[in-house]
Amino acid sequence: MSAALEPALPELGLAQYLDLSAHAGLDPVTRARRDAQLGLKAGSAVLDVGCGTGEDVRALAQWVGPTGRAVGVDVNEGLLEEAARRGGGPNVEWHLGDATALPFADATFDAVRAERVFQHLDAPQRAAAELYRVLKPGGVVRLLDQDWESLSIAGADPALTRRICRAFVDGTANGRAGPRHLELLRRAGFVEREVMVRAPWVSYAVALPGVLQPAVFFAHFAQAASEAETAQWLAALRAADAQGDFACSFVFYEVTARKCAAGHS
Ligand SMILES: C[S@@+](CC[C@H](N)C(=O)[O-])C[C@H]1O[C@@H](n2cnc3c(N)ncnc32)[C@H](O)[C@@H]1O
User: Fold this and answer.
1) Does ligand 1 lie within 6 Å of residue 57's CB atom?
2) In the CATH scheme, what is the code of domain 14-258?
3) Segments in the chain below pLDDT 70
């Protein structure tokens, strides 16, 4: 974390941040309905790409039962160790691997998902091709990502906020991942694409480590705002939160599609 960043929260590790932010604004009923769209049944094999600490993998393991496979893959060894430490049962597996070169054979999975992962990828189209490859014909893919261009924050000077938010979307590898998923999946060969959008309201406690501090980092990097300006911005947002005036939201895309039943590989 940059020295200029205000430590309004104790510094969070990535695993703690994932715990804090997982499914922000998503109630358990909506979450279960969302998982149901993967079409899993007892005995299915499902892959979560960029699984982090594995919360979704453990939930998916319930859907596929003891005869199925719920598999998490991630490039971050530390997060995978934490996922394994948290456990998950005999039908759960953890693998080290990159979304753009998945360590699985062709046509292995009935469903594949990736949540808040494609926004970090420099080569999202290669990753989409990998998801296609490891899916069985007729299998379902689900990508979930923000459109950081839609980031809306109230509580500080609007012009400065605009500059810092612009640096955030431009600095993120694939900052407009969400709305690009439809095209990405079509180009990878997927059919029956469906999109659902949500606009979660994000609390200051979640926004600070997940949005505000990264935005300040990118603003400094791009020289879009000085250290004094970002310190003033963070202080204004913290004061706004104390008054109950802080607001933060963005559009979140959930895109589902299918590999053709006679899918080419
Ligand atoms: C914001 S976290 C999301 C974790 C989890 N999917 C969730 O929604 O809680 C992004 C995850 O993607 C992983 N990741 C980033 N780039 C990756 C890549 N190229 N291949 C696989 N995983 C990647 C990170 O290590 C991290 O666990």
Assistant:
1) no
2) 3.40.50.150
3) 1-12, 24-29, 263-265
